[in-house]
């Protein structure tokens, strides 16, 4: 039957069979309510995350940038435990700002390898295909658009070369330790002995420094969280009023869990598609975890997922660690 309301019909079409929609309804029907942070990154979210990285309080990207800018010779050397040509596979390549330091070094040394960025954003993969070959004419590259494990399996099935996998930016922090372990076990499952994984982790430090990074004075992080409600409004015709929600970041120095919540400021019913979901005043939506690691945490993650640590790269303040593991 054709709806008399073409707008409603359009939304209904979009939400049938849509993982994002299912996750939103599941999450907001759960107790406690939750939304998945991987959905932060629509076009507006990408731009707000760029703003976060420029905020004075958000240190992790600066720290990892310093590691890549100053230590890529040592990084490259540690990665090349064999003379053979290899695949450099990056999970969540983004615009490859940090990786470009490494690509520059490898290219200048005439080292034989292929760069294989994987990203969930088709936009990003197209951008990398359009720009990298111009900057690095000597480097072979092939981008893959899709989710990490799926695309990693695809890379494995289409190339016999040794693989060095990059998971930078403390993306692993968006999983709790249990989820991170499962994820690393799955990555290990796609790799062969001699393959490597370089993981960026944000280290524990003064709790006030950590909390401030997720509670910047300008309110960019707040805007980043609220943008997910705006995205749900736009994509599914929901009726969130972002003024009815507040951003509440926490950091627990005992567990290293840095978490963001949205707090509902009044009792209300929110419509999303054909669903009506009730929100109580002061009810909490669990939005994001950014797990902070100790060196020991990274060691046990490596051993419980079948990797052996081979080298560690810190920034000068020792706030961030890129740790290289071998399968
Ligand atoms: C992109 C996952 C590394 O958790 O620090 C920044 C995202 N969230 N501010 C992080 C984020 C709030 C970021 N990662």
From TrEMBL:
InterPro entries: EgtD_Methyltrsf_superfamily, MeTrfase_dom, MeTrfase_EgtD-like, SAM-dependent_MTases_sf. Residues 22-325 form the Histidine-specific methyltransferase SAM-dependent domain. Keywords: Methyltransferase, Transferase. The keyword Methyltransferase applies. The keyword Protease does not apply. It comes from the Bacteria. Pfam families: Methyltransf_33. This is L-histidine N(Alpha)-methyltransferase. The lineage of its organism: Bacteria, Pseudomonadati, Bacteroidota, Sphingobacteriia, Sphingobacteriales.
């Amino acid at each position: 039957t054709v709806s008399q309301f073409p707008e409603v019909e359009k939304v209904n079409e979009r939400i049938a069979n849509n993982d994002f929609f299912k996750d939103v309804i599941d999450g907001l029907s759960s107790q406690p309510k939750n939304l998945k942070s991987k959905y932060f990154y629509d076009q507006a979210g990408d731009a707000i995350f760029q703003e976060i990285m420029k905020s004075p309080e958000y240190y992790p990207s600066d720290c990892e940038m310093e590691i890549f800018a100053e230590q890529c010779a040592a990084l490259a050397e540690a990665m090349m435990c064999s003379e053979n040509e290899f695949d450099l596979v990056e999970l969540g390549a983004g615009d490859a700002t940090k990786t470009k330091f490494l690509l520059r070094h490898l290219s200048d040394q005439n080292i034989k390898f292929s760069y294989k960025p994987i990203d969930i954003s088709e936009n990003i993969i197209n951008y990398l295909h359009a720009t990298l070959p111009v900057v690095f004419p000597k480097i072979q590259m092939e981008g893959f658009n899709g989710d990490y494990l799926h695309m990693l399996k695809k890379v494995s099935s289409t190339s016999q070369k040794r693989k060095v996998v990059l998971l930078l930016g403390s993306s692993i922090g968006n999983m709790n330790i249990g989820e991170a372990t499962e994820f690393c076990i799955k990555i290990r499952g796609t790799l062969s002995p001699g393959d490597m994984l370089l993981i960026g982790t944000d280290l524990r430090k003064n709790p006030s420094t950590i909390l401030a990074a997720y509670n910047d004075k300008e309110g960019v992080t707040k805007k980043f969280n609220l943008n997910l409600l705006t995205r749900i409004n736009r994509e599914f015709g929901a009726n969130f009023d972002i003024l009815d929600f507040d951003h509440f970041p926490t950091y627990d120095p005992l567990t290293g869990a840095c978490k963001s919540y949205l707090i509902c400021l009044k009792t209300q019913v929110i419509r999303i598609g054909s669903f009506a979901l009730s929100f109580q005043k002061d009810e909490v939506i669990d939005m994001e975890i950014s797990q902070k690691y100790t060196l020991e945490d990274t060691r046990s993650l490596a051993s419980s997922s079948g990797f052996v640590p081979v080298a560690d790269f810190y920034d000068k303040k020792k706030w961030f660690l890129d740790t290289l593991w071998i399968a």
